[in-house]
Amino acid sequence: MTDQVSIVEVGPRDGLQNEPQPLSVPLRIELIRRLAAAGLNRIEVGAMVSPKHVPAMAGSSEVLQAIAEREFYTSVLVPNVRGLQSLPHPKASDEIAVFTAASDAFNLKNIGCDIAESLARIKAVIAEAEVPVRGYVSCIFACPYSGEVDMAKVTEVSQVLLEMGCYEVSLGDTTGVGTYREARRRFRHWASTLGAGKLAGHFHDTYGQGLANVCAALEEGVRRFDSSVAGLGGCPYAPGASGNLATENLLYLLSQEGMHTEANLEAVIDTAHWINHQLNRSAQSALMQTERSTCQNPSS
User: Is 235 an annotated catalytic residue?
Assistant: First the structure.
């Protein structure tokens, strides 16, 4: 198995989208540039959504235009054809991301339609997209409204996305309820049925189990993970769910396990403190609270 692990930094989109006081476009651009300078070379930079519904993502077109000349790979969330058509131009981002969940109840609360309709919308987006498409499937363990989610439903939805043309599906523990043993069992199944190389893990850290779930997925061959600097994020449609797995915590784990990434841990921690200051945010990841001199640099 390869020891190279790829990180998708989702802080500028998934991390910021629920902030009560939206970060300005210039500061969002600065955050993205700091993350890229820290060696995070795959970054989800925004979402082409209604500013009425997601005020924090207003100005995503401006963000894309400001980083048009870049040396890192960008992704932008596109929920429907209207969002796709609102891009500054069809190839403004290196890829687009589409979203659904393995729960009708969650989809109805989040995007106003059931799984079948969400997949129909995604199919229309993929048909018009001129760049690669990445899929998200939420609620891979449980739904905050309907309870436990059947592993087979996650497989079914993910398979449809892959057959439609998504090059990869990111499997998300939206409520952060997953634990190592169950994650290992499920990812073993998904890796065998869908292919580990077509999967990524997206773990929330609601109950402090994010890193344990990363380890479970790693052991089943998954080599790409989503994370958010400073653990920014959450979900307004997942009551009680706290933020994403902190990028700095993930980097430390990977470095200690001998996994290679191209990111600089100290620079990521610096960026985590910077964004916390900009947001007047007190929550800190474990690595942000640790003396930097004790941290080993994953790029060394």
Answer: yes
Residue pLDDT tens, the chain, 300 long: 468 999 999 999 999 998 888 999 999 999 999 999 999 999 999 999 999 989 999 999 999 999 999 999 999 999 999 999 999 999 999 999 999 999 999 999 989 999 999 999 999 999 999 999 999 999 999 999 999 999 999 999 999 999 999 999 999 999 999 999 999 999 999 999 999 999 999 999 999 999 999 999 999 999 999 999 999 986 655 555 568 999 999 999 999 999 999 999 999 999 999 999 999 988 789 999 885 534 445 444
Give this prediction's pTM. Answer: 0.94
What is the rounded CA–CA span in Å between residue 265 and residue 155? 34
Instruction: Spot the catalytic one: 139, 143, 166, 235.
Output: 235
Please give the Cα distance from 17 to 140 (Å, whole number): 21
Give backbone dihedrals phi and psi of 42, rounded to 5 degrees, phi first.
-130, 115
How many other C-beta atoms can be found within 10 angstroms of the C-beta atom of residue 51?
Answer: 12
Please, what are the domains in the chain? 6-294 (3.20.20.70)
